[in-house]
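Milestone M4 deliverable, item 7.
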Amino acid sequence: MGVSFRWLLASSWTSNVGDGIALAAGPLLVASQTDSAFLIAMAALLQRLPWLLFGLWAGAIADRLDRRRLVMVANALRAVVVSVLVVSIASGAVSIGVVLAVMFAYGVAEVFADSASQTLLPTLVRPADLGIGNARLQAGYLVANQLVGPPVGAFLFAAGMAWPFAAQVVAVALAVVLVGRIVLPPPPDVNPADDTAERTHVWHDIRDGVRWILAHPPVRTLALVILVFNVTWAAPWGILVKYALDHLHLGEVGFGLLTTATAVGGLVGIASFGWLERHARLATLMRVCLTLEVLMHAALALTTSGPVAIGIMVVFGAYAFVWGTVSATVRQRAVPLAFQGRVGSVYMVAVFGGLAIGQAIGGLLAERWGVLAPFWFAFAGSAITLALVWRQLAQIAYAGAPPEGLDREADPDPPTVG
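Output delivered:
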């Protein structure tokens, strides 16, 4: 898919290694600085708060500026922020206040880096190649961020508190260099007399992005599906550790296996995505993935066996990453290049907003009716949502699909989208 795509892929994998290292080292650092449950919870909140505060702004800015340079600048700021943390650890000046401030600043820079980087793939590859391109980027996230990075981060933290974050600085800085090698195609011709983008405020761009979504039913419905399914998914996921310990009696090691099973299943799903894309319609894949999501909640609520729950999580990882790849591909095909940043940011705000709402609901339900209540809530909510959008998924899957797309070969007469 071209040299520039390979540079993008290398940058993504490298950056994910650094983030994966911090995924294990960050909580260990927080725990070493405080015993306060509130401050530990604040550290988790600070990972999502920047998206809710700055996500829409970051998407609009990504559509205004040179996206490649924006990724480079934002990643460079990430490296600087973590370098401050390394210096504070090495000098003995680290404290929980410093750690929380660094986490928030890093999260803000990450919002701008991710908002711009997610617009690069549709610019670099043909619409028909977006599926396999997204799958390869997802594979990097699974391998580097979920499987390789965390154990390396824990090992480095045991060797010395500053080492994992120094390694993260190196990985993020290398990602800046790799992104710098990307050559973007020239933008479409623009009327020199049209300087609207320069005269309007960023809020105008944000409103344009929201209005664009509201005016396109397939894209709008997909955003609502993502929001609702993240609410229902996060409700049980937020109390998964209590479910594993108190209901399944797995212990700490078993809980680790339960979460690792998701990444293992994800690798299976991503590895098979090319075959699935060639042999199944995207609408079918979307329906199968969402149906499995509904059944997964019920299965976890019904089982009392740890090994069975781990097997369910393998299946969950497989279909969840196939769904993530399909939904990103559908959105990128449907959205014009000029709107990729702001529309993508609306989706990310829906993701993180749904996670925050779902975790709050799950905690309240578990406190009032027991550890299985969030799973039954998720089952009912996702089942009702799927029933309401089942017919519309056919239109969503073909929103913006190219004539030469693989789905056209699988289904010579796909539904038309107005």
